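Recap from last week: sequence in, structure out.
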Amino acid sequence: ETVYVDTNATFSSPGSIAVNFTNSTQVPYIEYSKRPETYIVPILFALIFVVGVLGNGTLVLIFIRHRNMRNVPNTYIFSLALGDLLVIVTCVPFTSTVYTFDSWPYGELICKMSECVKDISIGVSVFTLTALSADRFFAIVDPMRKLHTGGGGRRATRLTILSAVFIWILAVVCALPAAVASYVRVFKINDSKSFNVCYPFPDSWGEMYAKAMVIAKFFVYYAIPLVIISFFYLLMARHLILSTRNMPGEMQGQARQVRARKKVAKMVLAFVIVFAICFFPQHVFLLWFYSDQAAANEHFNGFWLAFRIMGFCLSFINSCINPIALYCVSGTFRKHFNRYLLCIYC
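Predicted structure tokens:
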């Protein structure tokens, strides 16, 4: 029997998937020094770290230094940037080496921190995008109700800050199982060869716990928020189509407001699409693997290995790509990015 061990994460950060092959035509165990991902993944993660720190750090700086940027949608964007910056600074330096070393070298404390912080960041991202979509829906569909509910600009901003704080608390609560359950697990290949890996599902808790957590995280961190966001955007699109037909020609001021709000809605939609694409491969792989581990062990091959590595990398690319998307879709943020990063005073 040959054994292939992928010491990459089972969720989004360090963990392990041990796959036993009885068919010799499947992928055999390959030494790390002979694997291409051993060299490609650390280089990619170095780029993620540099771009993520510069991009998200600049977003935080823009929000802090420019009072006129502190409105409702930008408060949520600031929260997104903080969550991405947190995972880049605390997780990326460690997870970048899971394809370089055959064993997890950082101990159990870093293992628990890495898993927990990763889940916090995902929770902050997806819950904030859901809140942003709801905010854009009310801003476009019923702006007067939103204004009266908020009691004016300052009060609306304060309520948004409270919402952002609640989102962080909710994300921390959802990440507690990862902090408690994660541990350094030993996988043995033979009597003389074994691997220490950071694993988020305790063996003593049974296979059902791993399966339940994968399914629960798929719904909480992906499916349900995306359904809610899609619902808001469908209603928003319907309202914009009807309002364009019924809007009198002399209401130019209102038309300008609608165009400005549509622009922000498109920016939020860009964030949502990026998030959905980046986390889709990871959830597909985990649902496939943990739905039936015996069958997954039998059918695991080079395709699923490459798919797993792609999902692993994309989940961290999401943490650095939001500033790039913001630069492309927002002229205001582009001006500030140019000023701080490129020293171009527009």
